[in-house]
Each structure stands twice: as structure tokens, then as C-alpha cells.
Amino acid sequence: MKARRHLLCAWALITASAATWPLHAQTVSTDPLAELGRRLTAPPVLRGEFEQTKTLKGFKRPLVSRGAFVMARGRGVHWATREPFASTIVVTRDRIRTLDASGGNNTVETRQEPGLRMVNDLLLALLAGDIKALASRFQAELVLDGARGWRLNLLPREASLGRFVTRIELQGDEHVRQVRWTEASGDETRLQFSKHSLTPLSPAETAWFD
């Protein structure tokens, strides 16, 4: 059960409202992820703020949280929630570590949980714009808008992945700006990123991923 809770928490990190797409947008049917790769940038460090809205089946009101993130390419993601409660999640390929306001620390090693390892890999691929990783796991439909804008719909290829998520919709330009995904349970998570910057990691931030 503990691994399952961390697994769902990891999915929630990458989830965001979908905007109305212009009618004149161009739909790409041939090698869509290759075109997306040309539009996305790949900075070594990407940081910003997020607002996450999670809608649960059986609950009338969605759960809304806000905070800041730091994505370090090749290292992981530091996810610090400020509202409604302070907490921190550090996601790397090998582990998920959660820290609460009281100093509590809980770590799950993904080597011991193959399903969790798969989710971690996809989470990092989504934030970092890792096109090859996405192409291996999802069928993709890309819609382009102008020189930089895009919207990407992803459907899982594998039944094992479909047990966790049925659809992911991403939207952005040189960075992923919005994500919306629907879990197999029917729960939906939306997340919007803002105030992006490319400031390098400080020594203290580098230690987050050690």
C-alpha cells in the first residue's frame, strides 16, 4: 500500500488545464514526437511555480495545491508544495523521497518496485521533454500552432501503463506549460506551470538529488 500511495503521488506531479486550441492549427500525423523535439528546449535546469487541481470521483470539490518545482536534467525533480500544507517530494530515477513540515522523511527505492520505476521514468521524461521515452510508451497525436506552440495527446501503448493512466494531454511551447491526465480510476489531475527560469542549481539544491 505504501508503494501504491507513492506511485499515485508521483503521477500527480505531472498533471493541468487544457486550453481551447485554434481551429487553424495544423495536425501532424507523421513522426509527431520528432517535430515536438525540435520545438522543445532542453535546459540543464528548469524551475518555476505550479498550481495543481485534482478531481476525485465521489468528491464535489477538487483539491488545489500550489508551490514551486526544480527540474534538473539527469538528476530529478524537487517538488515543494506551499499550499494548503507544506511538503516536499524529491523524485529521481532510483527513489521517491517525501519530507513534511515537521521534518519527517520517507523514502521508497524504485529498484524494489518495477511499477514505480516505470512511473518515475515517465514523470521525468514528461517534465524534461524526453521524446524517445515518450514514444516508446505512448501513441501520440500532436497539434501545432504557429512557430512554437503545440498540444500533445498521449494514449498508453501497454496494458500495464493503462492500469494507472488512460490519457495524458500536454500543452506548451519551448517548455511544457500545462498537463492534464486521467487515471484509470476516473480521477483527473490538472497542473499548470508558470514563472519559468533557467537559473543553475546552487550547491544546496544539488544536494537534494544525492
TrEMBL record:
Query: Keywords on this record?
Result: Lipoprotein, Signal
Q: Which residues form the signal peptide?
A: 1-25
Q: At the top level of its lineage, which domain of life is listed?
A: Bacteria
Q: Which InterPro entries does the UniProt entry name for this protein?
A: LolA/LolB/LppX, OM_lipoprot_carrier_LolA-like
Q: Check the record and name the Gene3D superfamilies matching this protein.
A: Lipoprotein localisation LolA/LolB/LppX (2.50.20.10)
Protein name (Swiss-Prot/TrEMBL): Outer membrane lipoprotein carrier protein LolA
Species, as recorded: Aquabacterium soli
